[in-house]
């Protein structure tokens, strides 16, 4: 708090991003090798979480996952620091085996649990990862308190507004149980780690019976589908659900829809078949997955042994020299095309990344699964291209082109699925439960027929347009990052006050808020006609510009948390130990968190 010899930090949103921040800040504050000018008792950390618990956030929350929903990344890459998730699995092994064996067996089917060795390279259920985050959060709070740091947790509280005051920065909270509102004032630093958000913009199908705008929470989606297909089942007709989107959320939706049935396994733990859960004589659900291109992503495995020869940092530097410091997307695509051709001896190029040359999704998935054992060249090159984080350096007009037309191809090719999911999808196809369609890039929107069913237009086998009817549509497609569509009162208030600003370049709003261009994660705020780094607010995660293109994986969150923690610790190092002007620590509030 300004001028009091105390420091107060606020973390708004305690999913993976907020939990990482807490851990790295506490780690630094309690590191005996560091000399801080403030004693621990002069430091307060306040955490605010709208959900019922700290830690899991959106993708790993109990209510948002079912057992088959796996982490999309290997366990060894998902810790809040180092290999901490796997370390936690080892520490928790006896407890997990005893109390939650299904969370282990989902990833290691058929093993003798006593022999289980947590594996860096495995994909564990997201429910298990949520448990890890929740426990690590509480352990970190305990450790901080043991060192004398005051930690106040507000769970079930929504942060609804924030503004600078003489004391520092104030945050207004609403207790979601009682509706009571109050303000906590005197923060030196506040992290906006509010994470995943669902656009408040509605589409033409919103509100129509049978249209499900998100696959989460899965129980709600399942219930909505069950209710809507009742009458069709009663007529002994086969109900059909269309899942729009074939990325990770689409796969989650498919796993939820077939969750009542059972997968069988081979003796070495691979998926052998799928048995739907239907009573004799009943028709099982038909699931149709579709997207503009009609293919699933590749399957995760070792990267192919290829280092880009054309698409290199040197080449990017040359493009920037030619274009006033900007990258040009067509030059990048040319280089990418050359690398793809070189790696595949002319068999594939950029065109194949846009339009994979497979007859259908099943053929591609089968081939991708095979390639995942040895390394998939096209995936490897797309991933390496994406890891160059070129988006932020594109010229503004090229960012617009990339967002509209190209991101979909990079994401689909670079972000793979776990092999277990691929095997399940293939088993569902073999069982006649799952089929796929290609909607094409200029297909008419999904319409509602006179009978209340949905009409989906797709590309038929002969290349012409065909239409099918579905009882339900589950929307599992891309997010909308325009800030005006952010549903949170907090974000809208901060935008309205100019405490954060949408990121725009030459009039093109990329989505997400602007950060200090010199690096770090300080938000930009508006002061008169100019934008300057906020003295109080930092942010990382889906709220900030470029995140989805360049950073949306666990290691990037860890890197950001470390930078923010270093920035915050600077406050504790720099704060002059003047006598506090208020009782206790520097925060002023009518309420105290738990
Ligand atoms: C379905 C799904 C699956 C994913 N799977 C993976 C994966 O397997 N591996 C991977 O690396 N990445 C995955 N990701 C990417 C994921 O976004 C990040 O890994 C990470 O979990 C995001 O964490 P976060 O804390 O930024 O956001 P969130 O998890 O969304 O957490 C933000 C938290 O802030 C709270 N909050 C928001 N606003 C307020 C407010 N005003 N007041 C109080 N609290 C608030 C929310 O309740 C929430 O708990 C997945 C993403 C999704 C959507």
Automatic annotation (TrEMBL):
Coiled coil: none annotated. InterPro entries: FAD/NAD-bd_sf, HpyO/CreE_NAD-binding, L-asp_N-monooxygenase_NS-form. Residues 11-196 form the FAD-dependent urate hydroxylase HpyO/Asp monooxygenase CreE-like FAD/NAD(P)-binding domain. Pfam families: NAD_binding_9. This is Putative NAD(P)/FAD-binding protein YdhS. It comes from Streptomyces zagrosensis.
